[in-house]
């Protein structure tokens, strides 16, 4: 049975065109900063932008007759997967032209920024042009909501195509009845918090450029800083607390944010994922404080950074590598769990973990209960089908298999097992925290594998698997 035919390919190509144009436009935004600072790197942004925009127009014109064909979920997932990969390549070309690194390193840096992984390939980011620092920041800001989500909200019309593309990026929550209206409201909330973050950083004494870039990278839970010492560069507890608040906001569902005003804050207090996240932060910080000699504010900051998958830090990775093994294990666990679904975070996400453990507990109760008794499964007063438990378990299993395979390959290439495991969990969860300097010594093949891990981590595996299956189907013929 053939799952992908020519019509499917033409539908995918036609609907990918608009996304290619959007990615090209994204590459042009940093030119504003380039002109302000007289850096004269305009050509490095224009060439990739022209490539992407022209390719997009060609796809739209050549396959225009397929614009009225109904888009199915499989089309949306393949388009989403390929669009993220295309964005990685095009934005990687910008890095290649402007900073003179090789194309694999450029793709690594861009995929890390777009997916909010926040791990950088540069050993010294402070020597980079201001326009590149801004470009990395805006990639994280756009990638926080999703490259596809941002573009369809701005450039496409309401309809089935928008709904399928929205769903393809592992988003189910609806603020409004229509997908387009949901996206507009989500972006409004995102803009409000972004503006608030910039203002708070300015009031705390941070320079304007730093305030903009750090807000972009924090509210998006990206964490890729413009300073070598990350947020620790500022040595300011007020800035640390502002960053902690922004990280938590970014890791909270946009649906909850939307309801805050209408419910006078009750939506936040009643949201199970938010309550579990705060409990994890509080419990982990207290336990790790008792088990180590780490400064409390630095410990709290790192715990929040791990569970929100931001990857911002106040201590260098080499210092974090000297922390007690128990601390590192707890951080790895938090990085794997992640924050709320419907937010900007990566990792497994709290709702899957909650559903999985609730399902396990339900199974135990069924075994202990009298024969024939039905034990209901509920989360926040809503009945959850057994299918949801199975799906959560399947995803967690797939997620851990990806970590295991990548970790094994890193060890095979001669890297330290502990450092390698921490790094693997970080890239798979789109976190960005590191211990040691493994990124600076990665072999090219491991960089490509890391790009793959960041890609599947951001898209939650299934869209990429479907895309790979479709490619196999094509070449099988």
Automatic annotation (TrEMBL):
It comes from the Archaea. It is a multi-pass membrane protein. GO terms for molecular function: monoatomic cation transmembrane transporter activity. GO terms for biological process: metal ion transport. Its main location: membrane. It is found in: Cell membrane. The chain crosses the membrane at residues 12-36, 42-63, 84-104, 138-156, 190-209, 238-260, 272-291, 326-348, 396-423. The lineage of its organism: Archaea, Methanobacteriati, Methanobacteriota, Methanomada group, Methanobacteria. Pfam families: TrkH (PF02386). This is Potassium uptake protein TrkH family. It comes from Methanobrevibacter millerae. Belongs to the TrkH potassium transport family. PANTHER family: TRK SYSTEM POTASSIUM UPTAKE PROTEIN TRKG-RELATED. The keyword Transferase does not apply. One of its GO terms (cellular component) is plasma membrane.
